[in-house]
Automatic annotation (TrEMBL):
Coiled coil regions, renumbered to chain: 75-102
Gene Ontology terms, MF aspect: DNA binding
Protein name, UniProt field: DNA-binding FadR family transcriptional regulator
Domain HTH gntR-type: 1-35
Superkingdom of origin organism: Bacteria
UniProt-listed InterPro entries: GntR_C, TF_FadR/GntR_C, Tscrpt_reg_HTH_GntR, WH-like_DNA-bd_sf, WH_DNA-bd_sf
Keyword Repressor found: no
Length: 134
């Protein structure tokens, strides 16, 4: 389904258990120890910055997060969120019309959409990935 080997999944679970994020109960299941986002983001940050993920994998992860975030943004956005998205889009179009690359403007647009999802896990993961990729 996700094209990931069982060995890779076992290794990931082992790392999570070793760091105290999950508890493995053989024959019963795997349980999240608490809802501590900070601990999870420390783990993500160490993976991203220790060179264990390449830029293409980070971009694929970002694309996946953006897809789901746009779905939730469409459902949860506020009028202020819409204003930020529109302003970012206008800035990007303005830069493109001046034949500029619009990298910052593009990032601002994507960030505004992610923020409009109102999902702190997506927002924080996007920030981590973006800090690593750029």
């Amino acid at each position: 389904m996700f094209s990931v080997s069982r060995g890779a999944v076992r290794e990931a679970i082992s790392v999570l258990a070793e760091r105290g994020i999950v508890t493995v109960k053989p024959g019963i299941g795997i349980f999240l120890n608490n809802n501590d986002q900070d601990q999870l983001f420390v783990l993500f940050d160490s993976i991203f910055h220790e060179g264990k993920a390449d830029i293409f994998e980070l971009l694929e992860l970002r694309q996946g997060i953006e897809s789901y975030a746009s779905f939730y943004a469409a459902q949860r956005r506020t009028e202020e969120d819409l204003r930020r998205i529109k302003a970012a889009l206008d800035q990007m179009e303005h830069s493109i019309n001046r034949h500029e690359l619009a990298v910052k403007e593009d990032f601002a647009f994507h960030s505004a959409v992610i923020e409009a999802s109102h999902n702190s896990m997506m927002i924080n993961t996007f920030k981590l990935i973006s800090d690593t990729a750029y």
